[in-house]
């Protein structure tokens, strides 16, 4: 019989263990709440230092669409034809926009106002990104917890809450698609790993719904629908197929593709474009493998060989037929079924060769090495350690994380914009590395401290006694398994299918081998804490100084340390709004189309959607042409005002003169008479006295440098650091109507055509009279 002490001590130990687990859960929950608060608050520097304003260019279009949605409702939003953009073509907004961000912010605004909290649409848009950054941190915790436990999950969540690469796209006011897309990306990956670990159809359905939200939010959803098939194929090739893998993948492809096709901007592209073909091919492969495993369970070994031969042959025939159909469909497309941005990711030189409009975007350029240290900082050094930790031991979930980091590193090296995709992977692996390192170091300190050594030895003895009993348990389970094999039952088969692989726990000897010297362990812990402090300082600096300034309001430090504000953009848009007619058309380079439409409420020719390359090339050709030809182009498009951005006076480098060669290249791609060498002197782009006559006489040069010599008497350009070549000239077909305080935005009006036509008629009449007089003089009198 059991002693009363054992009956008393047994429940006490169980209660203490459950109490410890409950206390740990409460602590983890509190830490997660604090991480969410940190992720939200670190992104408020832009509001604290400046004001609550929308940033950059694309967010202004999203803000305008959200305003329309909140005012007119969802049905008018889907059917909205916007006649203020891409004049005279217009744009169907409901069928050409990813609606996830707009619907999310609109729903938040409606819920908040239904609770009698009076928030404007602009306020909701400004704070949407910080809110979802907290959600993304929690999703990173859930994903990393499925891979390596809660300790690594908390570390990864804290790292993602502060990583500068993510902050650059999620500060308050950065109302872009990535604000909610990164959360959707990480959460979709979490649900995939959760389904892979549990084999639950419930999580598989949630995974498809999360993928649908990702499709609604961002075009980067193609990364998910290619990465997951790659992982499934990797598991099949390495012999790690299981029913859980099938449940995690098959519903995602079927249900996810059907849901993706419901998004108007995607539509049938979900089954017709090359970006999705990999998922369908792996879908066929996994069904062939599943059929082979099913046949293996019901046939004898001899019959199985025959059946496998038949299944493999039929499967290969089906795969070959599908591949042939895909090749036929792809070959019929000029771009082989790939979009321009996808081809740029596969071939980094593709955009510069064939699609200059994509190559002209600064965020589509490859990053430099310092940008990695700026955006992910010390995580770049911790990622390799996290990869090594994922191999000890290697599981399905850890192999997915390794594949995620490898692909994201490659894509981030092609486009600096995709550093945003790298950030969650780097945080997850760095969290795993730090968690494993702290586990080893703290265990080493615990084993060697004199006060805790006794408890640790007792714990090791208890673990050793339990390990002595374990072999008998193992033998019993082996016998029961043999009996189950002899008499198979449906319940046992179901249990085998639902069986989840358990992580092997290191033995006592392995733990002894991981013990490091006490001094080295203490020093290593201090160094890791110092490394974390350095990371926190860098992230706070990046959030406060590097990524908080809105591009529409610029600042600079004066010589006396004061802050000088350049608010020229809003000054120009305000002038357009108050001094022009509602139906006036404004021409500018496509970078400023969204802001002009949203802030000035005026019709533009092109904007940041860049869906019509010919229309953009027409504007580029006008800017590259002489004044008379440019006037004719703009007049044919009913343009009344031309807006140019000029930074030569204050040293603003992102002006139209620095972008001008891209206008020439894009215009020359559609209109061959525009040739880039005509604007270069010996292969160099110059605006000084050595510039070519074509450059000095083009419209962009004249509109940027008109009256510029009056500012300092020399015409010194502070961006190009040289004096301009053509200083004194007059405009014949355009007139200056407004220039902002710092000359950053200049607006010109097209002169009416009647003055030019009258001159032509007078000239033609005089020429006719002169020619008639010459004819009269030339005639001989027949009477003489």
TrEMBL record:
Which cofactors does it use? Mn(2+); Mg(2+)
**Which residue ranges are recorded for the region named Disordered?**
456-506, 755-784
Q: In which pathway does it act?
A: Protein modification; protein glycosylation
UniProt keyword list:
Endoplasmic reticulum, Glycoprotein, Glycosyltransferase, Magnesium, Manganese, Membrane, Metal-binding, Transferase, Transmembrane, Transmembrane helix
Name the catalysed reactions: a di-trans,poly-cis-dolichyl diphosphooligosaccharide + L-asparaginyl-[protein] = N(4)-(oligosaccharide-(1->4)-N-acetyl-beta-D-glucosaminyl-(1->4)-N-acetyl-beta-D-glucosaminyl)-L-asparaginyl-[protein] + a di-trans,poly-cis-dolichyl diphosphate + H(+)
Q: Where is the composition biased (Basic residues)?
A: 755-766
On whether Acetylation is a keyword of this UniProt record, the answer is no
GO terms for MF: dolichyl-diphosphooligosaccharide-protein glycotransferase activity; metal ion binding
Location relative to the cell: Endoplasmic reticulum membrane
**How is it placed in the membrane, per its record?**
Multi-pass membrane protein
Q: What is its EC number?
A: 2.4.99.18
- Renumbered to this chain, the Basic and acidic residues biased-composition regions fall at 475-506
According to the record, the segments passing through the membrane are: 21-42, 92-112, 124-143, 149-167, 179-204, 210-234, 246-271, 277-295, 307-331, 372-392, 399-416, 422-441, 513-537
* This protein's name: dolichyl-diphosphooligosaccharide--protein glycotransferase
Native organism is: Linum trigynum
Origin organism lineage: Eukaryota, Viridiplantae, Streptophyta, Embryophyta, Tracheophyta
């Amino acid at each position: 019989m059991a002693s009363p002490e054992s009956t008393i001590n047994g429940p006490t130990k169980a209660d203490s263990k459950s109490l410890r687990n409950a206390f740990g859960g409460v602590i983890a929950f509190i830490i997660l709440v604090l991480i969410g608060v940190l992720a939200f608050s670190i992104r408020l520097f832009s509001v604290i230092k400046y004001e609550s304003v929308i940033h950059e260019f694309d967010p202004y279009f999203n803000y305008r669409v959200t305003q329309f949605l909140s005012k007119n409702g969802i049905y008018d939003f889907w059917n909205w034809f916007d006649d203020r953009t891409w004049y005279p073509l217009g744009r169907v907004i409901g069928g050409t926009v990813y609606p996830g961000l707009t619907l999310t912010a609109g729903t938040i605004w409606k819920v908040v106002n239904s609770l009698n909290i009076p928030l404007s649409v602009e306020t909701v848009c400004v704070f949407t990104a910080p809110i979802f950054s907290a959600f993304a941190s929690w999703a990173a915790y859930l994903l990393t917890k499925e891979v390596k436990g809660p300790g690594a999950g908390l570390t990864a969540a804290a790292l993602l809450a502060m990583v500068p690469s993510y902050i650059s796209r999620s500060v308050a006011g950065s109302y872009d698609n990535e604000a909610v897309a990164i959360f959707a990306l990480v959460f979709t990956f979490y649900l995939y790993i959760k389904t892979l670990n549990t084999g639950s159809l419930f999580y598989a359905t949630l995974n498809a719904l999360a993928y649908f939200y990702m499709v609604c939010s961002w075009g980067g959803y193609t990364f998910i629908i290619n990465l997951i098939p790659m992982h499934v194929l990797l598991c099949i090739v390495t012999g790690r197929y299981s029913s859980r893998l099938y449940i995690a993948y098959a519903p995602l492809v079927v249900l996810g593709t059907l849901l993706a096709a419901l998004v108007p901007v995607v539509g049938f592209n979900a089954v017709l474009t090359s970006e999705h073909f990999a998922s369908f091919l792996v879908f066929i492969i996994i069904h062939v493998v599943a059929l082979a495993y099913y046949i293996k369970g019901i046939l004898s070994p001899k019959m199985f060989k025959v059946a496998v031969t038949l299944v493999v042959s039929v499967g290969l025939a089906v795969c070959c037929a599908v591949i042939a159909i895909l090749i036929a469909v792809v070959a019929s497309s000029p771009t082989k079924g790939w979009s321009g941005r996808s081809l740029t990711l596969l071939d980094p030189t593709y955009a510069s060769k064939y699609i200059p409009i994509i190559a002209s975007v600064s965020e589509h350029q490859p990053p430099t090495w310092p940008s990695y240290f700026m955006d992910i900082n010390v995580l770049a050094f911790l990622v390799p350690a996290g990869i090594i930790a994922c191999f000890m031991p290697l599981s399905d979930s850890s192999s997915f994380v390794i594949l995620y980091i490898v692909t994201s590193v490659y894509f981030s090296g092609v486009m600096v914009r995709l550093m945003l995709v790298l950030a969650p992977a780097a945080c997850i692996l760095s969290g795993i590395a730090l968690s494993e390192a702290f586990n080893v170091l703290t265990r080493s300190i615990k084993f060697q401290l004199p006060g805790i050594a006794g408890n640790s030895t007792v714990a090791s003895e208890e673990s050793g006694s339990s390990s002595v009993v374990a072999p008998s348990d193992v033998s019993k389970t082996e016998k029961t398994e043999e009996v189950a094999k002899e008499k198979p039952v449906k319940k046992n088969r179901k249990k085998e299918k639902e069986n989840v692989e358990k992580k092997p726990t290191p033995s006592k000897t392995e733990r002894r081998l991981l013990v490091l010297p006490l001094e080295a362990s203490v020093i290593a812990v201090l160094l890791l804490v110092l490394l974390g402090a350095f990371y926190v300082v860098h992230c706070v600096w990046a959030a406060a100084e590097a990524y908080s300034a809105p591009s529409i309001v610029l600042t600079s430090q004066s010589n006396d340390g004061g802050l000088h504000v350049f608010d020229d953009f809003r000054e120009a848009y305000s002038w357009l709004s108050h001094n022009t007619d509602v139906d006036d058309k404004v021409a500018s380079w496509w970078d400023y189309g969204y802001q002009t439409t949203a802030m000035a409420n005026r019709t533009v020719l092109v904007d940041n959607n860049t869906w019509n390359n010919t229309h953009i090339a027409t504007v580029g050709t006008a800017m590259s042409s002489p004044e008379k030809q440019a006037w004719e182009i703009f007049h044919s498009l009913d343009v009344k005002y031309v807006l140019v951005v000029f930074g030569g006076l204050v040293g603003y480098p992102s002006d139209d003169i620095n972008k001008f060669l891209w206008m020439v290249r894009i215009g020359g791609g559609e209109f061959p008479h525009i040739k880039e060498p005509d604007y270069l002197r010996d292969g160099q782009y110059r605006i000084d006295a050595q510039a070519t006559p074509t450059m000095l006489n083009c419209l962009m040069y004249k509109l940027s440098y008109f009256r510029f010599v009056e500012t300092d008497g020399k015409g010194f350009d502070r961006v190009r650091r040289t004096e301009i070549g053509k200083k004194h000239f007059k405009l014949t077909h355009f007139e200056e109507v407004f220039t902002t305080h710092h000359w950053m935005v200049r607006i010109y009006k097209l002169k009416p055509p009647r003055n030019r036509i009258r001159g032509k008629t007078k000239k033609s009449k005089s020429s006719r009279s002169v020619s008639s007089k010459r004819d009269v003089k030339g005639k001989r009198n027949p009477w003489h």
